[in-house]
User: Which sequence fits this backbone?
């Protein structure tokens, strides 16, 4: 039954100038891959305050690529303009098509169409 599900999509490759990449890694002290793990939307109902120096300026409804989720309060993200910064995790909503990160235990996934 697990074989019926397609594999998760590959991480979104982000092409970036090596000089810019070096600056990003230094500014955010990040040494992992600069690949989008998820695509998320900024909550249309959240109240956004003035961002800090390392925070990404976002507006309600923005779509961002999540690069790193190691900090449970703020995620390292990239916006559609190629800018990087932290976004509070509480501001972000999972996109409907981004479902694969929920399924850690495929044996526990059930079929709603099964009459039994």
Assistant:
């Amino acid at each position: 039954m697990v074989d019926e599900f397609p594999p998760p999509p590959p991480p979104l490759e982000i092409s970036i100038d090596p000089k810019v990449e070096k600056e990003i890694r230094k500014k955010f002290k990040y040494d992992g891959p600069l690949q989008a793990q998820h695509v998320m939307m900024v909550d249309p109902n959240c109240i956004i305050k003035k961002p800090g120096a390392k925070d990404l300026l976002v507006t309600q409804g923005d779509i961002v690529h999540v690069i790193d989720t190691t900090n449970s309060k703020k995620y390292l993200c990239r916006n559609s303009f190629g800018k990087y910064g932290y976004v509070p995790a509480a501001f972000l909503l999972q996109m409907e098509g981004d479902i694969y990160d929920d399924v850690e235990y495929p044996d526990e996934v059930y079929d709603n169409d099964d009459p039994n």
Q: What stands out?
A: The chain has a mean pLDDT of 81. Helices lie at 18-28. Residues 12-96 form a domain with the SH3 type barrels. fold (CATH 2.30.30.40). The first strand starts at residue 12 and ends at 13.
